[in-house]
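Possible regression after last week's pipeline update?

I re-ran a chain I had predicted before the update to compare outputs. Posting the input and the new output here so someone can diff against the archived version. Not blocking, just want to make sure nothing changed silently.
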Amino acid sequence: MFKSLHLSISGFTKLIPLLLPVLFLVVFPGSVCADSSTKAKHSSEKGLSLIEAVRDTIQKQPDVLLQQQEVEVSKGALQIEAGEFDAALSSTFNYQTSKYAPTYWENKLYEIGDRTYTSTAASVEVEKKTRYGISFGPSVDVNRTHGISDYMIPTSSNQAIVFFNLNVPLLKGRGEDATGAQEMAAAVEIEASQLDLEHTIALSVEQTTVAYWNYLEAQMQLKILKNMEEDSRQTLENMKQLVKGDDRPASDLDTFEADLADKISQRIAGEQNIFEARQDLGLAMGLAYEAIDDLPLPKDTFPDPRKNKSPLIKLGPAKLFEKARNNRADYLSMKKREAEARILLVAATNNLLPQLDINGGIGYAGLEDGGNVDDYFKSIGNKLTGANYSAGITLTFPFGNNEAKGLHLQQRSRLRKAVIQTGNLERKIRSDIVVAFQAILRTSRELKETRRSVKHYRTAVSNERTKFGMGMASVLDVINIQNFLRNTMLSEVRKMNSYAAAVVDLRYQTGALITTHGDGYRVEMEQLISPPQVGGETR
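New output (post-update):
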């Protein structure tokens, strides 16, 4: 039996052929970047692209669909407020008939019998209220009577009155700022809701992109873990051959068995990670539960900071914040609601005034004899009596005026609240931009160093296996250095994911993640994988 920790030259000669396959697996497992690129080439017609995931998100994400309905609700509110200024047509029609009672005339009783008295009245009025508070409209009243006179003579008469009314507020309700405030506020609310929709889409796109990168990370890490498991399994089989040949002690097998069990456990955990990542991506995309399990693996690769030509460092957070102020939808929505609150506060201030209205009108009356139907309408333009005028002034002064004061207090507080919310969001955006900016710089540097570490650990594994074959290293030395390589490769993938997430986060923070396109929204791949630029990119 082999009892020394060192191998003879002959033992080393036997060991090398057995270790070469394993050495190849460990030292040359393939770069993480190369692996993912290869994956992308092989799955050009299979697999899920990031753009496809984003497209489905915009179409299916429940939060997006809900916000679309909020836009429709705000459009309905505007239509309701505009209805106050619709012209209103009102009309009435009354018909009355009664039997004449017996009467005395010149001491004689006259029983009129079936003689009846009829009265027909019809009126039509149109009233229109303008957005400046002025109300006006014409009206037509026509009355027709048919009966018997006091002298027992059948009579018929048709009378018409045509009039034009005007009411002008002088204090409360005067001007567009007072009367049209609710409609103007509703119009601004539509703009705010549309911006909310844009922000919801941007947020959903960011969440889907991050979930996609997590899915890709889980996929790439699982492949690394599978390679490591296969490496450990092959090493164990090779060591069994060495033990049979009395070139290694049997006690070494326990260490390699334990290492294989650890690798299997890591692989199982990696399979669970990819399952959870798939679930998270499906939920972010808004897919139905039964469709999530059918999601294919990602086919895109992580963005490489080495290929990024954006002068991000030269831009700095200050310029990026100015970009956010001009483009970020939730910030612009807040500003819209500030404007909406100011509109309503002006109206509430006007509502504190007493009601003082001037009203007047002009018209004429006409008359036509006869009992025919056409005589009924001839009265509108026949035997005019000349113009009739009316004028008046109405003053309403509520004592206490608590309702108006309470409304004014509410609107003033709502404006202050909107200003505070906008300022708070501005503070948060500044901070988030700084964090995302630094994250890109930090993760790109970390990724660079981690790639260097992977390179050196591969060399170290090769050296350690050579030393092991010469009896200058223990089993644990080899396993430990292999685990260092594995952990560093996994870390490389995590750093790649962190950089990709930082890029899309900075895009989101600056409002440069999506662009408006007609009545819709467009997302290009470049917006998902490269940092924003100042200039040349607009909403």
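Follow-up from reviewer: compared with the archived run. Residues 1-44 have pLDDT under 50 and may be disordered. Marking as no regression found.
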